[in-house]
Amino acid sequence: MKFSVGLPLIFSAAAFALALVALLAGKEPGTLEEYHIVLFNTSTLGHEFITNIVSGDDDDASSTSATATPTPTSTDDDDGGIGGWFSSVRASATAIAGSLESQAASILDDIGNDVADKLADELGIEQFYSLHVMNMCEGSYAPNATASNAWQNVTNCTTPMDFSYMNISAMLDKELSVGPLNISLSDLGITDDLQDKLDDLPKLFQALAVMYILGVAFSGLAILGAAAALFIIPSGGRKIPLANFLIAALAMLFLLVGSLLTTVGVKKAKEEIQKRGGDEIGLEVQLGSKFEALTWAAFALMTLATFYWIYETVAAHRRRRTGAGRNGRRRAKDEKYSMDSHRSGGRHFKG
């Protein structure tokens, strides 16, 4: 038994544990929430919209009051009917606008200076939405959104592997529509380009989930292969090291792709969201640094295990060549001895 094989066993087990944490983080409310991949802070989403409604409608009201003129009374029945219909439509629109202004003003009065803490509640949305490998979680900040030591208080998580829930724009649209203002993201100023970038996130996370599931699976196989090699390598030739190398290399590859998608892909998505006006409407994107450290550590450990099996494969090949050379020389020596014996025996027989 070769005890140095315990090294790749340890490396593979550690990589498996880290990859499993990355895969299962956020599976249930409060489960390893700090290991999110990306977090959308929506605690100030729509602040500019609410402010503009109140200030804009106040300006319109002042302008209308200053320029108001008496409405002429028509004596024509037909004209009076049409004019009455337009007056009714205008009155309804004014009532709706006035109601929206009143609700917006009420929201501003309620939140006062505590915008980040209360605005999301007033709009009917959560303060944050965190995306994990397999699902999304949502909740509010505790003790409040502006505290220096604020932490995420998760209230709900979506069904794992249902990536339709990771469409953050659709989720916000749905929650805003049932809120007190009955508005949508487009009302808050979201552009079509920004909407498209947000809609691409489910595809990215679906690819991430596949990579981490395969990474965990092959890391587990690498553990079994290394454990078996502890007892088989001395008599297993180069087949066992080669098989373990292939398994470890696949685990390393999947973890590498997952790490690159997390680091490069998600970071690029954040830049695109910011460039297309995310910050302007109050949609702040935060990357999960703890998850990034976790996934790269898992990749590094599997890389060490892979290099060990490369070494063992090469060493087994050399041992085989050395053994074949020795056996060849021994056979040649035996054949020469046999021929010499045969010749000397023949001469003795003739004499």
Automatic annotation (TrEMBL):
<keyword id="KW-0812">Transmembrane</keyword>
<feature type="transmembrane region" description="Helical">
    <location>
        <begin position="209"/>
        <end position="233"/>
    </location>
</feature>
<dbReference type="GO" id="GO:0051285">
    <property type="term" value="C:cell cortex of cell tip"/>
</dbReference>
<feature type="compositionally biased region" description="Basic and acidic residues">
    <location>
        <begin position="332"/>
        <end position="343"/>
    </location>
</feature>
<dbReference type="InterPro" id="IPR052413">
    <property type="entry name" value="SUR7_domain"/>
</dbReference>
<feature type="region of interest" description="Disordered">
    <location>
        <begin position="58"/>
        <end position="80"/>
    </location>
</feature>
<dbReference type="GO" id="GO:0005886">
    <property type="term" value="C:plasma membrane"/>
</dbReference>
<feature type="transmembrane region" description="Helical">
    <location>
        <begin position="245"/>
        <end position="266"/>
    </location>
</feature>
<keyword id="KW-0732">Signal</keyword>
<feature type="transmembrane region" description="Helical">
    <location>
        <begin position="293"/>
        <end position="311"/>
    </location>
</feature>
<keyword id="KW-1133">Transmembrane helix</keyword>
<feature type="signal peptide">
    <location>
        <begin position="1"/>
        <end position="19"/>
    </location>
</feature>
<keyword id="KW-0472">Membrane</keyword>
<feature type="compositionally biased region" description="Low complexity">
    <location>
        <begin position="62"/>
        <end position="74"/>
    </location>
</feature>
<feature type="region of interest" description="Disordered">
    <location>
        <begin position="321"/>
        <end position="351"/>
    </location>
</feature>
<dbReference type="InterPro" id="IPR009571">
    <property type="entry name" value="SUR7/Rim9-like_fungi"/>
</dbReference>
<dbReference type="Pfam" id="PF06687">
    <property type="entry name" value="SUR7"/>
</dbReference>
<feature type="compositionally biased region" description="Basic residues">
    <location>
        <begin position="321"/>
        <end position="331"/>
    </location>
</feature>
<dbReference type="GO" id="GO:0031505">
    <property type="term" value="P:fungal-type cell wall organization"/>
</dbReference>
<protein>
    <submittedName>
        <fullName>Putative sur7 protein</fullName>
    </submittedName>
</protein>
